[in-house]
Amino acid sequence: MKALVHIRLGRERYGPTLDLQRRLRALRADGRVPDLLLSVEHEPVITVGRQGAEEHILASRRVLQRLQIDVHAVERGGDVTYHGPGQLVLYPILDLRGWGRDLHRYIANLEEVMLRTAAQFGVEAHRRPELPGVWIGLQKLGSVGVHVRRWVTMHGLALNVNLSPNLFSLIVPCGLHGVEALSLAELCDAPPELAEVEAAALRTMAQVFDVTVSTASREELSRWVM
Q1: Is the pTM of this model over 0.90?
Q2: Residue closest to 118 by CA, chosen among 202, 210, 201
Q3: DSSP for 16-58?
Q4: Residue 195 to residue 120: CA distance in whole angstroms
């Protein structure tokens, strides 16, 4: 059985985490670190993917500065999305040469992780044809956006747990007009804590990807990227 090393980053700004992903991906491509899974809760940020359009950011730069929301153009697929407090973000740094070199299956597995995680809290989400992510009707519960170089992945999935506040109104999510984001907390009688959902997601990652998941400390991570 393959192994996956999980590192909990806690609450972090997006820029340093993006730099960390890029450094770890280069290390993984060279075989200097194992397959990794970073979990993080971001400070408010808007990211623009390769298919993104600036006009899908509805707020002015002045408003974004006042709200202290960063904007980053990134290499993942997709359009515009928002990350912020109350959202569980998972970034797998995987060498897909050991996973069948199948990008479509990889993305489907990330969606499956979110579907099964939501189900553990009594929420039945679903896929929509041609639209990555997981949905409740026409509302988006979780997003997927990835990038692969030398068969090593970065970026990943974002599952809305209890967005506070929900600032998706500042953008056109995924470039789809009329789409709203909602959280598990809006669908559960007892809103789950982010830590509960993270633990459930890690168990589900182990099942879906058929791996063992161990945990490394921030100190170990620091030694890898020195």
Answers
A1: yes
A2: 201
A3: HHHHHHHHHHHHHHTTSS--EEEEEEEPSEEEE-TT--GGGB-
A4: 14
- Give the number of other CB atoms < 10 A from CB of residue 97: 11
Residue with tokens 């990794």: 36
Q: Contact, 95 vs 206, CB < 8 A? A: no
Catalytic site includes residue 174: yes
Q: Is the Cα torsion angle 150, 152, 154, 157 positive or negative in sign?
A: positive
pLDDT at 208 over 80: yes
C-alpha span between 183 and 164 (Å, rounded): 10
Token pair in block for residue 112: 């499956």
User: For residue range 7-52, what is the model confidence (pLDDT) as tens digits?
Assistant: 999 999 999 999 999 999 999 999 999 999 999 999 999 999 888 8
Q: Which amino acid is at 161?
A: V
Radius of gyration of the chain (CA): 17
Q: What's 95's DSSP letter?
A: B
Q: Give the active site residue among 38, 88, 174, 181.
A: 174
